[in-house]
């Protein structure tokens, strides 16, 4: 195909007939021979293509990367599955997918490219739709959390305070009506006990609806409090261990982790002997594990049961990958792996 040293090249029928872009370039970065597909794709004539360095046709944002790959190519590393953008003569952008080799004895690069612009446009549309969906999901989540916070505030600052006033009044009556009979006194003591229980329940519900600790003292404290509360009410040991910087996560991510733990604990049954929640971070990912000792969880139930769909759905909103692993004690571990994206 090559006629060295005068750089004349004989084109085979395949060279001209293929819809792929086929070209031969010199070591110094100029086109030396191209097929008709190159002219058709880029819109330049022969004189325009051959008189300028190939780098001048490359999209400015791709020039540095292309240069680095070309240096490797000249040093003997074939260029495979490389993508970059070119600017056409009308000013549009085309994406090309390259496979190239350097022929050292001829000091030329032989390259074949496919025009993948249409595919890239479709990918961009899918990415844009996905971004819009994520933004819409985030908006709904933020709206729900705002509503929850408002309800929790009303419970804590209004209803709980009213219940406290009732308790104070009952205490006053107990101390200032000494002549009250035994039955009346018993009813008043019962009313005080119920009022006290109501105040604690309001606090529990308020924390469940909107965990202010996530915002006030951080995710570590909030998850510790969640585990303590679970242990107190269910008589099942529940512990939290965390190895992470609180500032690593956005407020939305902290709430997501909290809600996932909250949802998982809500469905732990009395068969469990212990629950261990662990949140660790690495350079490329974050890992949340909820290990439930003594309780085997059915995988189909975890991912399809209506009561636990919220875990999978919430994880999906930030590209979390959910899995279920068996424990040596016969229990199960729910693991959420979140790849770092920024």
Secondary-structure blueprint:
Elements lengths: L1 E2 L4 E2 L3 H5 L3 E6 L4 E4 L1 H7 L3 H6 L11 H12 L4 E9 L5 E11 L4 E8 L1 H60 L5 H28 L2 H5 L2 H16 L3 E6 L7 H16 L7 E8 L3 E9 L5 H6 L4 H8 L3 E7 L5 E8 L3
Parallel strand pairs: 8-9
Antiparallel strand pairs: 1-2, 3-4, 3-7, 5-6, 6-7, 9-10, 10-12, 11-12
Helix pairs in contact: 5-6, 8-9, 9-11
Give a verbal description of the structure.
With 342 residues, the chain is of the alpha+beta class. It folds into 3 domains: 2-115, PAS domain (Beta-Lactamase), CATH 3.30.450.20; 118-210; 219-342, Histidine kinase-like ATPase, C-terminal domain (Heat Shock Protein 90). It contains 11 helices and 12 strands. The strands form 3 sheets. It has a 5-stranded antiparallel beta sheet. Strands 8-9-10-12-11 form a 5-stranded mixed beta sheet, with helices on one face. A two-stranded antiparallel ribbon has the order 1-2. β5 and β6 form a beta hairpin. α9 (251-266) packs antiparallel against α11. Mean pLDDT is 80; it is low at 1-8.
Strand order of the largest sheet: 4-3-7-6-5
The total domain count is 3
User: Which shape, going by the Cα principal axes?
Assistant: elongated
Main pleated-sheet profile: 5 strands, antiparallel
The percent of residues in helical segments reads 40-55%
């Amino acid at each position: 195909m090559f006629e060295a040293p005068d750089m004349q090249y004989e084109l085979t029928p395949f060279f001209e007939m293929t819809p792929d872009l086929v070209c031969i370039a010199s070591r110094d970065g100029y086109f030396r021979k191209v097929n008709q597909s190159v002219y058709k794709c880029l819109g330049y004539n022969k004189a325009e293509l051959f008189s300028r360095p190939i780098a001048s046709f490359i999209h400015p944002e791709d020039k540095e990367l292309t240069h680095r790959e070309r240096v490797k190519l000249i040093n003997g590393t074939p260029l495979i599955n490389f993508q970059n953008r070119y600017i056409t003569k009308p000013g549009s952008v085309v994406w090309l997918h390259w496979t190239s080799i350097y022929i050292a004895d001829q000091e030329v690069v032989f390259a074949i490219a496919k025009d993948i612009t249409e595919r890239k446009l479709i990918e961009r549309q899918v990415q844009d739709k996905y971004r819009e969906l994520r933004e819409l999901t985030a908006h709904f989540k933020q709206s729900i959390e705002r509503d929850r916070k408002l309800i929790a505030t009303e419970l804590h600052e209004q209803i709980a305070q009213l219940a406290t006033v009732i308790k104070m009044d009952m205490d006053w009556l107990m101390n200032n009506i000494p002549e009250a009979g035994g039955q009346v006194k018993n009813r008043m003591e019962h009313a005080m006990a119920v009022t006290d229980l109501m105040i604690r329940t309001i606090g529990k519900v308020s924390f469940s609806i909107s965990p202010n600790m996530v915002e006030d003292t951080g995710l570590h404290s909030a998850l510790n409090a969640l585990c303590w509360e679970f242990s107190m009410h269910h008589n099942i040991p529940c512990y939290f261990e965390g190895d992470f910087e609180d500032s690593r996560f956005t407020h939305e991510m902290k709430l997501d982790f909290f809600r996932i733990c909250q949802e998982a604990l809500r469905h732990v049954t009395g068969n469990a002997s212990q629950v261990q929640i662990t949140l660790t971070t690495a350079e490329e990912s974050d890992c949340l594990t909820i290990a439930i000792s003594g309780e085997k969880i059915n995988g189909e139930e975890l991912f399809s049961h209506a009561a636990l769909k919220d875990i999978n759905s919430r994880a999906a909103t930030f590209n979390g990958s959910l899995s279920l692993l068996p424990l040596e004690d016969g229990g199960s571990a729910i693991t959420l792996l979140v790849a770092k994206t920024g």
